[in-house]
TrEMBL record:
UniProt superkingdom: Bacteria
Family: Belongs to the BolA/IbaG family.
Pfam families in alphabetical order: BolA
SUPFAM superfamilies on file: BolA-like
Stated name of the protein: BolA family protein
Record-level GO BP terms: iron-sulfur cluster assembly
Coiled-coil zones: none
Species this protein is from: Thauera phenylacetica B4P
């Protein structure tokens, strides 16, 4: 049985960041016909809360996540919407 892309993304982020909250969604169906979708890459969204982001800029957090999913960005993922927060940020924003 093969692992779905969502499960692979979730596993990579779980391993790298030990998040207290992690949501991975597949929005690929919303982008049917889009060039990246035609080539096989999916559209995904990530909401992650981890202390690993403490002191990191938004751009650095995104780079860290791109690094964690590695080569999936070149073949399985066409677009990745990221919301990465620390626990304190999540709490202050009502998450």
């Amino acid at each position: 049985m093969s692992t779905t892309r969502v499960e692979r993304i979730r596993a990579a982020l779980q391993e790298r960041f030990a998040p207290t909250r992690l949501e991975v969604g597949d929005d690929s169906a919303l982008h049917a016909g889009h060039a990246g979708a035609r080539e096989g890459g999916g559209h995904y969204r990530v909401f992650i809360v981890s202390e690993a982001f403490q002191g990191c800029s938004r751009v650095l957090r995104q780079r860290m996540i791109y690094d964690a999913v590695g080569d999936m960005m070149h073949k399985d993922i066409h677009a990745l919407a990221i919301r990465a927060l620390t626990a304190a940020e999540a709490e202050s924003q009502g998450h």
